[in-house]
Amino acid sequence: MLILNNVGMTYHSGSGPVEALRDVNLEINDGEFVSLLGPSGCGKSTLLFIVTGLTVPTAGYVTIDDKKITEPFHEAGFVFQDHLLLEWRNVLQNVSIQGELRGMDKQVAHERSMELLHMVGLEDFKDKYPHELSGGMQQRISICRALHHDPKLLLMDEPFGALDAFTRDQMRVDLERLWAKRNSTVLFVTHDISEAILLSDRVVVISRRPGTVLEQIKIDLPRPRNFSVSESAEFLSYKHRLTKTFMEMGVLYE
Amino acid sequence: MIKRMKKRWLNLFWGLITFAVLIGLWQLACEVFDVPMYLVPPPVKIWEALLKYWSVTVRANLLYTLSSIGIGYALTIVISIPLAILFATSQWLEKTVYPILVAIQLVPKVALAPLFIVWFGFGLTSKVILVFLLSFFALLVDATTGFKSLNPRLVFVAKTMTNSPWEFFWKIRFPAALPHIFTGFKISISSATTGAIIAEFVGSNQGLGYLMLRANGELNTPYLFAALLVLSVVGIALYKLVEYAEALVIPWHSSVRTRLQ
Fold it and tell me: Do B101 and B3 sit in the same domain of this protein?
């Protein structure tokens, strides 16, 4: 269980202190898929860094399985909007670096990588270099790298933000399939309402700066959620409800 | 692939043709206008001089110049790269030592060359030092940029993977810096050649620079041009060598990829 306890974050910039997060309280169950949905600049990304101990909050604390996080949490995998692949390594080596840096046997690391590449349908591309791949492929490999060590926590910061609409839909379905085979807890940062609903067990709405939890909506849509789900009445009612929240926040207006 | 190769050979072919035409025009102009030999010798005479003096003086002096470039450049590599790593990791060091190095860089070192002769003697040491001083800064600046230019989010990703700064450096930070380091290598190698020649001009009894001065003194201009020719080939060859090494070491980088296309 991941618990955020009154987490707050204030930066000191040249023009004075900036309060990015205030009194964030969240409880996330093991294996849960949770989206953090909010407008740009509301501190969603900062929250991911705080959760993994890469950034120390100025108020409150985080616990994972009752252990307070005080240093970088190693059972985590990160995926960002940019793939952050190493351009001097081929696909297989890029996925395997996760195991290599963790002291895993090279052969074992490669076998695990091949297994993951097979799951995303890219095993034939194992000898290619990142620059030879499309954006969607690069991001798939980035996800494979993040899952290589079966992390307890998978943290995704707008991972599909730079992809075209078709690739995005496909990636969403693929991600759900990958996640279903493992038992990682996922924290998924996005500002796309549909994406949040379609992927999550729970959507957490974060307010404008200073970011705090405004609303939490449990999403009760059956899994796996294929493309037709986005036409169902339940989906639309969730979407309606969240759109209303954002209109009240003043992020959307007519 | 074959098409690309063909195009490269074709480019080389036209390059050589252009070169040959220019040489031919030079030869022709010398003969038609009867230009005195001590002013501008015709290419044929330069070639004759090169053949005549090659084993007598040119080869030995070439080796001397090459060794001052080689040792000076090696010094640049072993000093600039570790220093760049220190600058990239310690802001304090960068703030205190870097300005001093910039100051050294800004002093016209060529003007100090006579002093180096006084300090370090007529031999190889003074040449090596000037080669080093003229070439270390470009590599230092580029390598420092390289070691600093890692995407901060990639640093975060790596921190969740390992606690070992050593592993992080060798597997991520160092390879990421290589494109910048090679840019530094390329700029530095051309300054290194310049450094060696200047040092030999100022005070030496060996080296291609010295040979040119001697030929000049004897009004043996074809000899001078022969030494100059060798020197130019050295400069181009050294640069191409670095470029070749770059293509071997970082074939994945966009600078190399676009060049090969």
Answer: no
| Interchain contact, A86 vs B156, CB within 8 Å | no
The interface predicted TM-score (ipTM) is 0.84
B107 within domain boundaries: yes
Same domain, B92 and B134: yes
To test the contact with chain B by mutation, choose from A86, A129, A132, A149 the residue with the greatest count of B C-beta atoms within 10 A, namely A86
Query: Among the residues of chain B, which ranges form H helices?
Result: 2-32, 43-53, 59-89, 91-106, 109-120, 124-148, 152-161, 165-168, 174-202, 208-217, 221-249, 254-260
Q: For the segment B177-213, what is each residue's pLDDT rounded down to a tens digit?
A: 999 999 999 999 999 999 999 999 998 889 999 999 9
**B95-139 pLDDT, tens per residue?**
998 889 888 888 888 888 888 889 998 889 999 999 999 999 999
> Domain containing B4: what range?
1-34
pLDDT at B70: 96
Contact across the interface for B160 and A86, Cβ inside 8 Å: no
Count of structural domains, chain B: 2
Residue A223 structure tokens: 């899994």
CATH topology assigned to domain A2-75+153-249 = Rossmann fold (3.40.50)
Which residues of chain B make contact with A77, given a CB cutoff of 8 A? 160
State the Rg of chain A over Cα.
18
Is the domain of B1 the same as that of B84?
A: no
Tens digit of each residue's pLDDT (9 = 90 or more) over A147-159: 999 899 999 999 9
Instruction: Test A84 with B254 for CB contact under 8 angstroms.
Output: no
Phi-psi region of A216 (alpha: psi -120 to 50; beta: other; left: phi over 0): beta
Q: Decide if A131 and B157 are in contact by the 8 Å CB cutoff.
A: no
Q: Which two tokens stand for residue B203?
A: 């005070």
